[in-house]
Amino acid sequence: MRRILLLTALLMAGCAANPGKPVAPELRPAELELAEGYRAAIVAENLNNPSFVSFRPGDGALTIVDSANGRVLVVENGEQKPIVEGMATEFWKKLEDGTPAYKVGPLAAIWLSPMRLAVTDAGNPDGQETVAVWQISEQGPAGNKLKLRTNTIGPTGGGETDKGEGNFCGITLMPDGRTLYVCSHGNDKKTWVLRGDLKTGELETALSADDNGIEINSPMQALPWRGNLLVLYSGGGGKDDGLIVEWDVKTGKPAKQWKVPGVLDPMGIAQLPGTDNQFAITDNNWALTGVNQGRVLIATLGDAENAEYTTIASGLLGPVNCAFGPDKRLYVTCLGKHYDSNEGVVVAIEGFVR
Protein backbone atom coordinates (compact mmCIF):
# COMPACT_ATOMS: atom_id res chain seq x y z
CA MET A 1 0.00 0.00 0.00
CA ARG A 2 1.19 3.54 -0.58
CA ARG A 3 -0.22 6.93 0.26
CA ILE A 4 -1.19 8.91 -2.81
CA LEU A 5 -2.27 12.51 -3.03
CA LEU A 6 -5.38 12.50 -5.21
CA LEU A 7 -5.23 15.38 -7.64
CA THR A 8 -8.89 15.97 -8.35
CA ALA A 9 -8.62 18.86 -10.81
CA LEU A 10 -8.99 17.08 -14.16
CA LEU A 11 -8.99 18.48 -17.68
CA MET A 12 -12.52 19.85 -18.07
CA ALA A 13 -12.49 19.70 -21.87
CA GLY A 14 -11.63 16.04 -21.99
CA CYS A 15 -14.27 15.17 -19.37
CA ALA A 16 -16.99 17.18 -21.08
CA ALA A 17 -16.45 15.06 -24.14
CA ASN A 18 -16.90 11.90 -22.06
CA PRO A 19 -20.08 12.02 -19.95
CA GLY A 20 -19.00 8.79 -18.26
CA LYS A 21 -16.21 10.74 -16.55
CA PRO A 22 -17.90 13.72 -14.83
CA VAL A 23 -16.04 16.20 -12.66
CA ALA A 24 -17.35 18.39 -9.85
CA PRO A 25 -16.35 22.10 -9.85
CA GLU A 26 -13.72 23.50 -7.48
CA LEU A 27 -12.61 20.10 -6.29
CA ARG A 28 -10.45 19.74 -3.22
CA PRO A 29 -7.62 17.18 -3.06
CA ALA A 30 -8.23 14.10 -0.91
CA GLU A 31 -5.77 11.58 0.50
CA LEU A 32 -6.35 7.83 0.50
CA GLU A 33 -4.43 4.62 0.97
CA LEU A 34 -4.48 3.08 -2.50
CA ALA A 35 -2.97 -0.16 -3.72
CA GLU A 36 -0.24 0.16 -6.34
CA GLY A 37 -1.63 0.93 -9.79
CA TYR A 38 -4.87 2.57 -8.64
CA ARG A 39 -5.80 6.24 -8.86
CA ALA A 40 -8.80 8.14 -7.53
CA ALA A 41 -10.54 11.50 -7.70
CA ILE A 42 -13.52 13.25 -6.19
CA VAL A 43 -16.16 13.65 -8.90
CA ALA A 44 -19.09 15.08 -6.92
CA GLU A 45 -19.40 16.86 -3.59
CA ASN A 46 -21.64 18.87 -1.25
CA LEU A 47 -23.90 15.84 -0.78
CA ASN A 48 -25.84 14.89 2.36
CA ASN A 49 -25.64 11.19 3.21
CA PRO A 50 -25.26 10.09 -0.46
CA SER A 51 -26.52 6.53 -0.72
CA PHE A 52 -26.44 5.22 -4.31
CA VAL A 53 -24.86 5.68 -7.73
CA SER A 54 -25.97 4.51 -11.16
CA PHE A 55 -25.52 5.61 -14.79
CA ARG A 56 -27.99 6.91 -17.33
CA PRO A 57 -28.32 4.77 -20.46
CA GLY A 58 -27.00 6.37 -23.61
CA ASP A 59 -24.72 9.11 -22.32
CA GLY A 60 -23.53 7.31 -19.14
CA ALA A 61 -24.19 10.35 -16.93
CA LEU A 62 -23.34 9.73 -13.28
CA THR A 63 -26.56 9.60 -11.24
CA ILE A 64 -26.40 10.15 -7.46
CA VAL A 65 -29.00 9.68 -4.76
CA ASP A 66 -28.45 12.68 -2.46
CA SER A 67 -30.49 10.99 0.23
CA ALA A 68 -30.78 13.42 3.14
CA ASN A 69 -31.50 16.27 0.70
CA GLY A 70 -34.43 14.26 -0.68
CA ARG A 71 -33.29 14.31 -4.28
CA VAL A 72 -31.55 12.56 -7.16
CA LEU A 73 -28.83 14.33 -9.18
CA VAL A 74 -27.05 13.79 -12.46
CA VAL A 75 -23.59 15.13 -13.26
CA GLU A 76 -23.37 16.74 -16.69
CA ASN A 77 -20.25 18.57 -17.86
CA GLY A 78 -19.11 18.91 -14.27
CA GLU A 79 -22.41 20.35 -13.01
CA GLN A 80 -24.60 18.55 -10.47
CA LYS A 81 -28.22 18.93 -11.62
CA PRO A 82 -31.30 17.77 -9.66
CA ILE A 83 -33.58 15.55 -11.72
CA VAL A 84 -35.89 14.43 -8.87
CA GLU A 85 -36.34 16.51 -5.73
CA GLY A 86 -38.70 17.19 -2.86
CA MET A 87 -38.92 13.55 -1.77
CA ALA A 88 -39.77 12.69 1.83
CA THR A 89 -37.00 12.44 4.45
CA GLU A 90 -36.86 11.17 8.02
CA PHE A 91 -34.29 10.54 10.74
CA TRP A 92 -33.41 6.87 11.01
CA LYS A 93 -32.22 6.76 14.65
CA LYS A 94 -31.78 8.79 17.82
CA LEU A 95 -28.57 9.26 19.78
CA GLU A 96 -28.46 8.44 23.48
CA ASP A 97 -29.34 12.04 24.34
CA GLY A 98 -32.41 11.89 22.09
CA THR A 99 -30.92 13.88 19.20
CA PRO A 100 -32.30 12.70 15.82
CA ALA A 101 -29.54 11.14 13.75
CA TYR A 102 -28.87 9.88 10.24
CA LYS A 103 -31.36 11.51 7.94
CA VAL A 104 -32.51 9.47 4.95
CA GLY A 105 -34.76 10.12 2.00
CA PRO A 106 -34.63 8.23 -1.29
CA LEU A 107 -31.97 5.57 -0.93
CA ALA A 108 -31.60 4.04 -4.40
CA ALA A 109 -32.35 4.90 -8.03
CA ILE A 110 -31.85 2.97 -11.27
CA TRP A 111 -32.59 3.93 -14.86
CA LEU A 112 -35.13 1.82 -16.72
CA SER A 113 -34.60 3.82 -19.93
CA PRO A 114 -32.89 7.15 -20.77
CA MET A 115 -35.93 9.10 -19.49
CA ARG A 116 -37.47 6.74 -16.92
CA LEU A 117 -36.06 6.39 -13.39
CA ALA A 118 -37.09 4.04 -10.55
CA VAL A 119 -36.49 5.56 -7.10
CA THR A 120 -37.03 4.03 -3.67
CA ASP A 121 -39.20 6.44 -1.67
CA ALA A 122 -37.41 5.53 1.54
CA GLY A 123 -37.93 8.72 3.57
CA ASN A 124 -41.31 7.48 4.79
CA PRO A 125 -41.93 5.34 7.91
CA ASP A 126 -41.61 1.57 7.74
CA GLY A 127 -44.66 0.05 6.12
CA GLN A 128 -45.30 3.21 4.07
CA GLU A 129 -42.40 3.07 1.60
CA THR A 130 -42.82 2.43 -2.12
CA VAL A 131 -40.81 2.34 -5.33
CA ALA A 132 -41.73 5.26 -7.60
CA VAL A 133 -41.08 5.30 -11.36
CA TRP A 134 -40.68 8.79 -12.82
CA GLN A 135 -40.79 9.96 -16.41
CA ILE A 136 -37.99 12.51 -16.33
CA SER A 137 -38.68 15.84 -18.00
CA GLU A 138 -36.14 17.84 -19.96
CA GLN A 139 -37.64 20.93 -18.29
CA GLY A 140 -36.48 19.83 -14.84
CA PRO A 141 -38.02 18.16 -11.76
CA ALA A 142 -41.24 20.21 -11.89
CA GLY A 143 -42.06 18.63 -15.24
CA ASN A 144 -41.58 15.01 -14.13
CA LYS A 145 -44.54 12.65 -14.28
CA LEU A 146 -45.14 9.79 -11.89
CA LYS A 147 -45.71 6.77 -14.13
CA LEU A 148 -45.98 4.05 -11.49
CA ARG A 149 -45.91 3.64 -7.73
CA THR A 150 -45.78 0.23 -6.09
CA ASN A 151 -47.81 -0.84 -3.09
CA THR A 152 -46.34 -0.74 0.39
CA ILE A 153 -45.34 -3.81 2.43
CA GLY A 154 -47.02 -4.04 5.84
CA PRO A 155 -46.10 -6.26 8.81
CA THR A 156 -44.53 -9.56 7.77
CA GLY A 157 -44.57 -11.58 10.99
CA GLY A 158 -41.75 -9.92 12.91
CA GLY A 159 -43.64 -9.52 16.16
CA GLU A 160 -45.42 -6.66 17.91
CA THR A 161 -42.82 -4.10 16.85
CA ASP A 162 -43.13 -5.01 13.17
CA LYS A 163 -44.57 -2.01 11.30
CA GLY A 164 -43.71 -3.36 7.86
CA GLU A 165 -40.80 -3.10 5.47
CA GLY A 166 -38.78 0.10 5.11
CA ASN A 167 -35.40 1.61 4.29
CA PHE A 168 -35.54 0.38 0.69
CA CYS A 169 -31.79 0.75 0.19
CA GLY A 170 -30.73 -1.47 -2.70
CA ILE A 171 -32.52 -1.98 -6.00
CA THR A 172 -31.67 -3.90 -9.16
CA LEU A 173 -33.35 -4.67 -12.47
CA MET A 174 -33.31 -8.24 -13.74
CA PRO A 175 -32.40 -9.10 -17.35
CA ASP A 176 -36.08 -9.52 -18.28
CA GLY A 177 -36.47 -5.72 -17.96
CA ARG A 178 -39.59 -6.15 -15.87
CA THR A 179 -38.60 -7.61 -12.49
CA LEU A 180 -37.08 -5.52 -9.71
CA TYR A 181 -35.51 -6.77 -6.51
CA VAL A 182 -35.38 -4.37 -3.56
CA CYS A 183 -33.41 -4.76 -0.32
CA SER A 184 -35.51 -3.74 2.67
CA HIS A 185 -35.01 -3.26 6.40
CA GLY A 186 -38.05 -3.80 8.55
CA ASN A 187 -38.07 -5.70 11.80
CA ASP A 188 -34.78 -7.58 12.20
CA LYS A 189 -36.68 -10.72 13.27
CA LYS A 190 -37.90 -11.08 9.69
CA THR A 191 -35.45 -10.03 6.97
CA TRP A 192 -36.72 -9.68 3.39
CA VAL A 193 -35.61 -8.95 -0.13
CA LEU A 194 -38.67 -7.76 -2.05
CA ARG A 195 -39.68 -8.43 -5.65
CA GLY A 196 -41.46 -5.87 -7.83
CA ASP A 197 -43.24 -6.07 -11.18
CA LEU A 198 -42.83 -3.00 -13.39
CA LYS A 199 -45.93 -3.75 -15.44
CA THR A 200 -48.38 -4.24 -12.58
CA GLY A 201 -46.67 -2.17 -9.89
CA GLU A 202 -46.99 -5.09 -7.49
CA LEU A 203 -44.35 -5.32 -4.76
CA GLU A 204 -44.16 -8.48 -2.64
CA THR A 205 -41.96 -10.27 -0.14
CA ALA A 206 -39.71 -12.73 -1.97
CA LEU A 207 -36.52 -13.89 -0.24
CA SER A 208 -36.43 -14.34 3.53
CA ALA A 209 -33.09 -14.87 5.24
CA ASP A 210 -34.75 -15.90 8.49
CA ASP A 211 -37.04 -18.46 6.86
CA ASN A 212 -33.94 -20.13 5.43
CA GLY A 213 -31.84 -20.32 8.58
CA ILE A 214 -29.76 -17.20 7.85
CA GLU A 215 -29.45 -15.11 11.00
CA ILE A 216 -27.64 -12.19 9.35
CA ASN A 217 -29.91 -9.25 8.56
CA SER A 218 -29.70 -5.90 6.75
CA PRO A 219 -29.63 -6.73 3.02
CA MET A 220 -27.90 -3.78 1.35
CA GLN A 221 -27.54 -4.46 -2.37
CA ALA A 222 -28.66 -7.08 -4.88
CA LEU A 223 -27.22 -7.95 -8.30
CA PRO A 224 -28.27 -10.37 -11.07
CA TRP A 225 -25.65 -13.11 -11.23
CA ARG A 226 -25.45 -16.33 -13.26
CA GLY A 227 -29.24 -16.53 -13.56
CA ASN A 228 -29.76 -15.97 -9.84
CA LEU A 229 -29.61 -13.02 -7.44
CA LEU A 230 -26.56 -12.08 -5.38
CA VAL A 231 -27.39 -10.20 -2.15
CA LEU A 232 -24.94 -8.48 0.20
CA TYR A 233 -25.92 -8.42 3.90
CA SER A 234 -24.16 -5.98 6.23
CA GLY A 235 -25.30 -7.60 9.49
CA GLY A 236 -25.14 -5.72 12.79
CA GLY A 237 -23.43 -2.33 12.89
CA GLY A 238 -19.77 -2.62 13.85
CA LYS A 239 -19.89 -6.43 13.87
CA ASP A 240 -17.81 -8.84 11.83
CA ASP A 241 -20.83 -10.72 10.45
CA GLY A 242 -21.29 -9.63 6.85
CA LEU A 243 -22.52 -12.22 4.37
CA ILE A 244 -22.99 -12.68 0.62
CA VAL A 245 -25.81 -14.97 -0.46
CA GLU A 246 -26.60 -16.29 -3.93
CA TRP A 247 -30.37 -16.81 -4.10
CA ASP A 248 -32.06 -19.18 -6.52
CA VAL A 249 -34.84 -16.91 -7.77
CA LYS A 250 -36.92 -19.87 -8.98
CA THR A 251 -37.04 -21.71 -5.67
CA GLY A 252 -36.53 -18.77 -3.29
CA LYS A 253 -33.77 -20.75 -1.56
CA PRO A 254 -30.10 -19.89 -0.99
CA ALA A 255 -27.83 -21.62 -3.49
CA LYS A 256 -24.52 -20.62 -1.85
CA GLN A 257 -23.17 -18.34 0.88
CA TRP A 258 -19.85 -16.61 1.53
CA LYS A 259 -18.64 -15.01 4.74
CA VAL A 260 -16.33 -11.99 4.57
CA PRO A 261 -14.33 -12.19 7.81
CA GLY A 262 -12.69 -8.96 8.91
CA VAL A 263 -15.18 -6.82 6.99
CA LEU A 264 -17.34 -5.03 9.55
CA ASP A 265 -20.15 -3.42 7.56
CA PRO A 266 -20.20 -4.27 3.84
CA MET A 267 -22.76 -2.03 2.14
CA GLY A 268 -22.03 -1.83 -1.59
CA ILE A 269 -21.16 -4.50 -4.15
CA ALA A 270 -20.44 -4.27 -7.89
CA GLN A 271 -19.19 -6.94 -10.28
CA LEU A 272 -15.80 -6.19 -11.84
CA PRO A 273 -16.14 -5.67 -15.59
CA GLY A 274 -15.01 -8.69 -17.57
CA THR A 275 -14.94 -11.10 -14.61
CA ASP A 276 -17.19 -13.96 -13.56
CA ASN A 277 -16.73 -14.04 -9.80
CA GLN A 278 -14.90 -10.90 -8.69
CA PHE A 279 -16.65 -8.01 -6.97
CA ALA A 280 -15.79 -4.63 -5.52
CA ILE A 281 -17.19 -4.26 -2.00
CA THR A 282 -17.37 -1.22 0.27
CA ASP A 283 -16.73 -1.71 3.99
CA ASN A 284 -18.46 1.21 5.72
CA ASN A 285 -17.18 0.44 9.25
CA TRP A 286 -20.46 1.84 10.57
CA ALA A 287 -20.99 3.83 13.80
CA LEU A 288 -24.00 5.95 14.73
CA THR A 289 -21.78 8.24 16.80
CA GLY A 290 -19.76 9.43 13.80
CA VAL A 291 -18.18 8.57 10.46
CA ASN A 292 -15.33 6.07 10.48
CA GLN A 293 -12.74 5.34 7.84
CA GLY A 294 -13.78 2.52 5.55
CA ARG A 295 -12.38 0.49 2.70
CA VAL A 296 -12.90 -0.72 -0.84
CA LEU A 297 -12.09 -4.39 -1.43
CA ILE A 298 -11.91 -6.83 -4.32
CA ALA A 299 -13.59 -10.08 -3.30
CA THR A 300 -13.43 -13.38 -5.15
CA LEU A 301 -16.33 -15.78 -4.68
CA GLY A 302 -15.06 -19.33 -5.04
CA ASP A 303 -15.80 -22.74 -3.62
CA ALA A 304 -14.58 -21.94 -0.10
CA GLU A 305 -16.88 -20.82 2.72
CA ASN A 306 -15.11 -17.48 2.99
CA ALA A 307 -14.69 -14.99 0.17
CA GLU A 308 -11.08 -14.15 -0.60
CA TYR A 309 -10.40 -10.43 -0.76
CA THR A 310 -7.72 -7.77 -1.02
CA THR A 311 -7.93 -4.14 0.08
CA ILE A 312 -7.76 -1.61 -2.75
CA ALA A 313 -8.40 1.61 -0.84
CA SER A 314 -8.70 2.59 2.82
CA GLY A 315 -9.18 5.94 4.48
CA LEU A 316 -12.47 6.57 2.69
CA LEU A 317 -14.83 8.40 5.03
CA GLY A 318 -17.99 6.31 5.33
CA PRO A 319 -18.14 4.53 1.94
CA VAL A 320 -21.67 3.31 1.23
CA ASN A 321 -22.70 2.25 -2.28
CA CYS A 322 -20.59 1.58 -5.37
CA ALA A 323 -21.00 0.90 -9.08
CA PHE A 324 -18.74 0.65 -12.12
CA GLY A 325 -19.28 3.34 -14.71
CA PRO A 326 -19.02 3.03 -18.49
CA ASP A 327 -15.43 4.26 -18.15
CA LYS A 328 -14.62 1.17 -15.97
CA ARG A 329 -13.98 3.34 -12.92
CA LEU A 330 -15.59 2.39 -9.61
CA TYR A 331 -17.78 5.19 -8.25
CA VAL A 332 -18.21 5.19 -4.47
CA THR A 333 -20.57 7.31 -2.38
CA CYS A 334 -18.95 8.52 0.85
CA LEU A 335 -20.57 10.25 3.83
CA GLY A 336 -17.63 12.60 4.39
CA LYS A 337 -16.33 13.80 7.75
CA HIS A 338 -19.81 14.06 9.29
CA TYR A 339 -23.12 12.53 8.32
CA ASP A 340 -26.24 14.74 8.26
CA SER A 341 -24.17 17.47 6.61
CA ASN A 342 -23.37 18.51 3.06
CA GLU A 343 -19.91 16.98 3.30
CA GLY A 344 -20.60 13.83 1.32
CA VAL A 345 -18.74 13.07 -1.89
CA VAL A 346 -18.51 10.56 -4.71
CA VAL A 347 -15.03 9.20 -5.34
CA ALA A 348 -14.07 7.49 -8.62
CA ILE A 349 -11.31 4.85 -8.46
CA GLU A 350 -9.58 3.57 -11.58
CA GLY A 351 -7.17 0.71 -12.11
CA PHE A 352 -9.50 -2.28 -11.81
CA VAL A 353 -9.35 -3.04 -15.52
CA ARG A 354 -5.89 -3.20 -17.09
What portion of residues belong to β-strands?
Answer: over 45%
The arrangement of helices and strands along the chain is EHEEEEEEEEEEEEEEEEEEEEEEEEEEE
CA-atom Rg in angstroms: 19 Å
- Distance from N terminus to C terminus (CA atoms, Å) equals 18 Å
Determine the oligomeric state from the structure: single chain
Helical residue percent? Answer: under 10%
Averaged pLDDT: 90
Question: What are the key terms here?
Answer:
six-stranded antiparallel beta sheet; mainly beta; 1% helix; disordered N terminus; Neuraminidase; four-stranded antiparallel beta sheet; 354 residues
Give an overview of the whole structure.
The structure is a single chain. The protein has 354 residues and is mostly beta strands. It has one domain (2-350): Neuraminidase (6 Propeller). Helix content is 1%, strand content 48%. It contains 1 helix and 28 strands. β22 and β23 form a beta hairpin. The relative contact order is 0.14.
